[in-house]
């Protein structure tokens, strides 16, 4: 299992695996200051953010802590005021939009409801960055789409129109679309929110399978800290637009963190496995 | 297992290429039949009286159809080879009007369909986004104030439309545009141009000028001939060709701005480019037929209700349905009132409006594209 070794000033941590070999980061945010045109002052300030290669990183934090904003900056949907984002060591700006879409798949939190499109057609749109203006679909496209549909387990609804699906099935269809993009890095903004438990697990299992089989790097915003603690390899905890802590869940998830960041009193059990048992909301928030 | 999978893959391959559904084929065939029938009715009536048989014989007269010189004269304005009086009346006076109807119908429908996807708005059409009112104002200003420029009317109409849409885009632009801002800006610009139009009427001292102007602003195919076909055919073919090729871009755009960007589309650029194509298409129609109301709004809805929301199908459907409806409406405009001809825009407005309301009542999901 990975461990973090903290420097004395606690500014910069370096992740190593069991043999002490440093793990590369797929995505790095450096000296980021993020704001929206309508906001006064930066919404997110973050000296350094690492999304480790071939691992699942969960971004957690309360509403308005800046998770989505950070994800937007990582996916080039939001231009940082200062700082840079690098993917596999290269600056995001050096990619054309299509080149980037072949490296980095993004699923936004809100997907506009589009009723009259079949699931299969939607998944085929995931091949957009791999096709030219006049290109038809080729064999590689078909393979990627079949694989994505199989991974997401939505073969039986492939011909159904999106408008007739439940929220969970819709989400799986959108995820299949991003999977068909066939990228090494995947950013997902709250893919499990509003889903029933069954579909939450199906979404998470799909992500996990993708990570284990294809070595895809995943950064995912999760609403539920207990779920994130069990599911992710690394946690990034956000609080008031700043990084509160990050590292493997065993180290990050403490009763102190739950009080400071989420404003809840909770019991954290580390044996036999990490478990968060929320008790009640703390009064002073 | 691997074999079974790859077989499944091939089956899917075949399926993919056939986005052309039976409904679409049937719809296009039906539209073609309607266009032909309406066209035949159109050429059979007129001041020079002919029997149906005579008129149709003239239409399908092989000595004209297979005469290269005749086509050269039609399309390039060279001297007409000798032909019978019937042929001249049909081929030179009545058929070109049908062709202009076909061209304007197709371009307006395609233009409306593109605008609806680009703005992701049900109500979008060349109208809403200012193109029509801008063109209408330019025409009116030319007729009333700069009457010397009248020969360049089509060009001026197109310029006016482009200018108005440019203004709309500039107003809506704020580090990027959004569908809602585009439509709001369009409504405002529309209003301003319409006020300007109404203001201009007060400066027209000649009743004839006013009538010409009104015909332009309501849209009319009266008096159109090969001249108009020559003006319109090339830009129409270009814009329709690009629209058909860009159908997949429109499909991706329909997924929403964020998703389209995540998939690697340069959303602003594609949106601007396709809007340009839609303006070109609308300008073609406006240049030869004036501002035919409601058409660009209603036709895409009719097609969407029949063949579904996939733009690959929708575009093809529009290219067929637009001509069918325009030629039919023009038959009504020319022949319904006996002696006097109405502008075709009056007919499309009168039929299109109620039909649109009917669709709205019938379809539960009208709010969604």
UniProtKB/TrEMBL annotation, chain A:
Q: How does it sit in the membrane?
A: Peripheral membrane protein
Listed GO biological process terms: monoatomic ion transport
**What protein is this chain from?**
Cobalamin import ATP-binding protein BtuD
Lineage of source species: Archaea, Methanobacteriati, Methanobacteriota, Stenosarchaea group, Halobacteria
Q: Does the keyword DNA-binding apply?
A: no
Q: Species name for this entry?
A: Natrinema altunense (strain JCM 12890 / CGMCC 1.3731 / AJ2)
Which Pfam families does the UniProt entry name for this protein? ABC_tran
Q: Which GO terms describe its cellular component?
A: plasma membrane
Q: Which GO terms describe its molecular function?
A: ABC-type vitamin B12 transporter activity; ATP binding; ATP hydrolysis activity
From TrEMBL, chain B:
Q: Give the membrane topology.
A: Multi-pass membrane protein
Annotated membrane-spanning segments are 24-46, 58-78, 98-115, 127-146, 152-172, 231-250, 270-299, 341-360
Which keywords fit this entry according to its UniProt record? Cell membrane, Membrane, Transmembrane, Transmembrane helix, Transport
| GO CC terms in record | plasma membrane
The record, for Pfam families, names: FecCD (PF01032)
Show the GO MF annotations.
transmembrane transporter activity
Q: Which Gene3D superfamilies match?
A: ABC transporter involved in vitamin B12 uptake, BtuC (1.10.3470.10)
Q: Which domain of life is it from?
A: Archaea
Provide the protein's localization.
Cell membrane
Q: How does it assemble?
A: The complex is composed of two ATP-binding proteins (BtuD), two transmembrane proteins (BtuC) and a solute-binding protein (BtuF).
Into which family does the record put it?
A: Belongs to the binding-protein-dependent transport system permease family. FecCD subfamily.
Instruction: Say what the protein does.
Output: Required for corrinoid utilization. Probably part of the ABC transporter complex BtuCDF involved in cobalamin (vitamin B12) import. Probably involved in the translocation of the substrate across the membrane.
* Name of protein: Cobalamin import system permease protein BtuC
């Amino acid at each position: 299992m990975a461990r973090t070794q903290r420097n004395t000033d606690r500014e910069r941590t370096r992740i190593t695996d069991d043999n002490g070999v440093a793990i590369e980061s797929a995505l790095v945010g450096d000296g980021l200051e993020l704001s929206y045109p309508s906001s006064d002052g930066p919404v997110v300030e973050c000296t350094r953010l690492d999304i480790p290669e071939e691992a699942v990183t969960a971004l957690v934090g309360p509403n308005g802590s800046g998770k989505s904003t950070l994800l937007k900056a990582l996916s080039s949907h939001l231009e940082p005021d200062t700082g840079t984002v690098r993917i596999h060591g290269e600056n995001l700006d050096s990619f054309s939009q299509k080149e980037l879409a072949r490296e980095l798949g993004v699923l936004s939190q809100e997907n506009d409801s589009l009723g009259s499109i079949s699931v299969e057609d939607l998944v085929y749109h995931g091949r957009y960055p791999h096709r030219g203006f006049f290109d038809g679909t080729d064999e590689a496209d078909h393979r990627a789409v079949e694989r994505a549909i199989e991974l997401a387990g939505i073969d039986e609804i492939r011909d159904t129109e999106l408008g007739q699906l439940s929220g969970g099935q819709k989400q799986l269809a959108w995820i299949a679309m991003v999977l068909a993009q066939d990228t090494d890095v995947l950013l997902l903004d709250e893919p499990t929110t509003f889903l029933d438990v069954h579909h939450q697990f199906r979404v998470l299992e799909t992500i996990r399978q993708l990570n284990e089989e294809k070595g895809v790097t995943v950064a995912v915003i999760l609403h539920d800290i207990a779920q994130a603690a069990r599911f992710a390899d690394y946690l990034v905890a956000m609080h008031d637009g700043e990084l509160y802590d990050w590292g493997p869940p065993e180290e990050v998830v403490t009763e102190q963190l739950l009080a400071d960041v989420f404003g809840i009193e909770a019991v954290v059990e580390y044996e036999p496995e990490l478990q968060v048992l929320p008790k009640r909301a703390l009064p002073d928030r | 297992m691997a074999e079974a999978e790859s077989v499944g893959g091939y089956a899917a391959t075949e399926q993919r290429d056939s986005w052309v559904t039976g409904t679409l084929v049937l719809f296009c065939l039906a539209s073609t039949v309607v266009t032909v029938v309406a066209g035949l009715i159109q050429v059979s009536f007129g001041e020079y009286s002919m029997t149906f048989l005579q008129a149709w014989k003239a239409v399908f007269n092989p000595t004209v159809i297979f005469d290269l010189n005749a086509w050269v004269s039609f399309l390039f304005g060279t001297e007409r080879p000798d032909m019978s009086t019937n042929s001249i009346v049909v081929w030179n006076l009545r058929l070109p009007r049908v062709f202009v109807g076909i061209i304007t119908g197709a371009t307006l429908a395609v233009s409306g369909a593109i605008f609806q996807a680009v703005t992701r708005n049900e109500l979008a059409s060349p109208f809403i986004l200012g193109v029509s009112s801008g063109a209408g104002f330019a025409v009116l200003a030319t007729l009333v104030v700069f009457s010397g420029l009248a020969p360049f009317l089509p060009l001026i109409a197109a310029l006016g439309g482009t200018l108005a849409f440019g203004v709309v885009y500039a107003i809506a632009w704020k580090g990027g545009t959004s569908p809602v801002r585009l439509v709001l800006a369009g409504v405002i610009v529309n209003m301003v141009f319409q006020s300007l139009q109404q203001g201009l009427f007060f400066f027209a001292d000649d009743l004839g000028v006013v009538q010409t102007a009104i015909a332009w602003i309501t849209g009319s195919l009266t008096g159109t001939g090969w001249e108009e076909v020559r003006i319109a055919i090339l830009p129409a073919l270009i814009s329709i060709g690009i629209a058909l090729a860009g159908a997949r871009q429109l499909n991706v755009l329909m997924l929403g701005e964020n998703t389209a960007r995540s998939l690697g589309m340069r959303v602003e650029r594609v949106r601007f480019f396709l809007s340009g194509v839609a303006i070109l298409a609308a300008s073609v129609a406006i240049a030869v037929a004036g501002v035919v109301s409601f058409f660009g709004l209603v036709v895409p809805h009719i097609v969407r209700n029949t063949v579904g929301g996939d733009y690959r199908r929708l575009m093809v459907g529009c290219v067929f349905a637009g001509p069918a409806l325009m030629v039919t409406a023009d038959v009504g405009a020319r022949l319904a009132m006996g002696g006097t001809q109405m502008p075709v825009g009056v007919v499309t407005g009168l039929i299109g409006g109620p039909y649109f309301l009917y669709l709205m009542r019938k379809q539960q999901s009208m709010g969604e594209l």
